[in-house]
Amino acid sequence: MSEAGMVLGGTQREFLTFRLGAEEYGIDILKVQEIRGYDPVTRIANSPDFIKGVINLRGNIVPIVDMRIRLRLGEVVYDEMTVVIILNVGSRVVGMVVDSVSDVLALDEAQVRPSPEFGGAFDTRYITGLGALDDRMLILIDIETLIIDDVMAIAGETAGAA
Predict the structure, then answer these.
(1) Tens digit of pLDDT for each residue in 44-61?
(2) Burial, 22: exposed, middle or buried (Cβ in 10 Å; 0-12, 13-18, 19+)?
(3) Torsion of CA 25, 116, 77, 93, to 10 degrees
(4) Confidence class of residue 151 from pLDDT cuts 50, 70 and 90?
(5) Conformation bin of residue 35: beta by default, left when phi > 0, alpha when psi is -120 to 50
(6) Integer Cα distance of 124 and 22 in angstroms
(7) What is the C-alpha end-to-end distance of the chain, expressed in Å?
(8) Are the C-beta atoms of residues 35 and 84 closer than 8 Å to each other?
(9) Is the CATH code 2.60.40.650 the one for domain 12-161?
């Protein structure tokens, strides 16, 4: 499990939970700046398909990542439950589109299981573990690593095009 996914000093960590399709995910609540309803974005030419575009958030241009597309989870449907979670990751502000936000959960060490090994079948480096709470299972995502990798890839493409 990565350092980002560990419980510090045996204390609980809080995760914002959200849904993508039938699955429930969790991210470190300390990375969340705000939650907004989904509004149309300004598309950026030649950007990867999971980059929906950008929004102007109080004078800051914020890239918006559609997590359903980014994680290859099938058809994307935007409805009244669709939200954008605005994150502060790696000194950048980035938004991610999710199907809905559930709640904030506190998990301790005993409730966080290591990420299973899938033998290279798919990329698990962004999964820090699985959170177990009663009958719920959360996929805990290292959102900072995931988003920074995406933003750096886009910055590289932009620099290469200049």
Answers:
(1) 888 888 999 999 999 999
(2) exposed
(3) 50
(4) low
(5) beta
(6) 19
(7) 38
(8) yes
(9) no
pTM (2 d.p.): 0.82
State the number of CA atoms in the 13 A half-sphere of 109 facing the CB.
Answer: 7
Tell me the domain boundaries of the chain: 12-161
Distance CA 105, CA 42 (A): 33
In this structure, the number of other CB atoms found within 10 A of the CB of residue 40 comes to 9
| H-only helix segments in 13-142 | 67-70
CA–CA separation, 60 vs 25, rounded Å? 27
User: Among residues 133, 126, 127, 132, which one has the least CA distance to residue 147?
Assistant: 126
Q: Give 117's contacts (C-beta < 8 A, 6+ positions apart).
A: 124
As a whole number of Å, the CA-based R_g of the chain is 16
